[in-house]
Design goal:
Helix content is 45%, strand content 7%. By secondary structure, the chain is of the alpha/beta class.
């Protein structure tokens, strides 16, 4: 049976929603990071110290290896013996067919199992450009309202709870509003606000709700971060927008694509462009570093350059970053996971062992790689609404 929510008992508009609506979860596909980028294992010397004697007593070169993780323990689950099936219970006798038919007919006659929200067209048109266009113009809803004094509008696909919150705001029923909401509710309100274009009446309450959960903003690229991106764009929170897009640019391992949220295409395109450019710049810098070492453009000597060229080449190759390396759009790769991996090259014994006698502290790998990472990282300033004035004017 249908149910009726009276936002305005004397209203002339009824919004129709289906009773059963799957709540939106805005899941995003996150490509896993390549496993060979995870180089958090430390270099450790082989057992026997920094030197060992050969058969003729000569000092052998320093040896090092990776400390392999212990193999995971395999847990074998033993299935319990199935319990004997319970005795079947006798089925209840069926009700008379005539009674079932009468009940079904009554349900169909009372509103097709939909939820109805009675509201005022004047409030809707004053607060929302969407309703002003549909009810006050030449569209079918407007004609029906003018000719019959009442109209029903299909709102299938929207969530009831958030629809009631927005309608209470539009109709000035502020005591019906909660003091705080969670992130999912706030995201659905942002979606409705963008759909109805009713920012002015909603924003004062959203500002309070944002402040209450602002400290929960994640610093990790995730579904929650994309929800915050949507909220910050819809309600034009420039500081949040900049911070969130900066995190997304650093950590995203995929192309940005959020079809279920009202995020501007131009924002997604710019995020994709800057992410790709940053990864290309980082990989290009590594290639230039190797070329400088290969052709002795570095100030150090031949032996040192040869040693560093070989070490860095092998380290990059083991990470899948050296010839040919990953290609755009770099699925599975982010600035963050590449940078975090290559800066660990500086943890090799090259910086601490002096047995070869061919390099000094100025030749340490970190003096080559860290400045490159920092240079690219400085370009991540996040996005500003100034870049998207055309979209802002079009949607306001």
């Amino acid at each position: 049976m249908s149910s009726l929510h009276l936002i305005d008992p004397d209203g002339d508009v009824e919004l129709l929603l289906r009773r059963e609506v799957e709540p939106a979860d805005w899941d995003i596909d996150i490509t896993p990071s390549p496993s060979n980028l995870d180089y958090r294992r430390e270099f450790v010397p082989e057992v026997g110290g920094t030197k060992k004697k050969g058969k003729k007593g000569r000092a052998q070169p320093f040896e090092w290896g990776y400390q392999e993780p212990e193999p995971p323990q395999v847990v074998v689950e033993v299935e319990a013996e199935p319990e004997p099936a319970p005795e079947p219970e006798p089925e209840p006798e069926a009700e008379p067919e005539q009674a079932q038919t009468e009940e079904t007919s009554a349900d169909l006659d009372t509103g097709d199992l939909r939820i109805r929200i009675r509201v005022s067209s004047k409030h809707l048109m004053l607060a929302s450009s969407y309703f002003k266009r549909s009810l006050g113009g030449k569209l079918a809803e407007g004609h029906t309202l003018q000719s019959e004094g009442y109209v029903e509008i299909d709102m299938d696909g929207h969530d009831l709870d958030e629809m009631l919150l927005v309608m209470n705001m539009i109709h000035g029923r502020f005591r019906q509003l909660p003091s705080s909401v969670d992130l999912s509710t706030l995201t659905r309100i942002a979606v409705l606000t963008d759909y109805f274009h009713c920012h002015e009446v909603v924003e004062p309450f959203v500002d309070q709700w944002i402040e209450r959960i602002r400290g929960e903003i994640t610093q990790v690229y995730s579904k929650e971060l994309i929800q915050w991106l949507c909220i910050s764009q819809v309600f034009r929170k420039g500081d949040l927008f900049k911070a969130i897009t900066r995190t997304a640019l650093r950590q995203s391992r995929d192309l940005f694509d959020t079809p279920d949220l009202p995020i501007w295409n131009s924002v997604e395109d710019e995020l994709n462009r800057q992410r790709t450019a940053a990864i290309e710049k980082l990989l290009s810098g590594l290639t230039s570093l190797l070329q400088d070492l290969l052709y002795d453009r570095d100030q150090c000597g031949y032996e040192c350059n040869a040693f560093r060229y070989g070490l860095i080449s092998k380290e990059l190759a083991s990470r899948g970053l050296h010839s040919p390396g990953p290609q755009a759009p770099f699925l599975g790769y982010s600035f963050e996971n590449i940078a975090s991996s290559i800066v660990h090259i500086q943890g090799s014994p090259l910086q601490t062992s002096h047995s070869m006698g061919v390099f000094g502290s100025q030749c340490a790998i970190n003096t080559q790689i860290s400045p490159l990472v920092q240079q690219v990282e400085q370009s991540f300033d996040g996005l500003s609404f100034d870049k998207f004035k055309h979209d802002d004017e079009h949607t306001s």
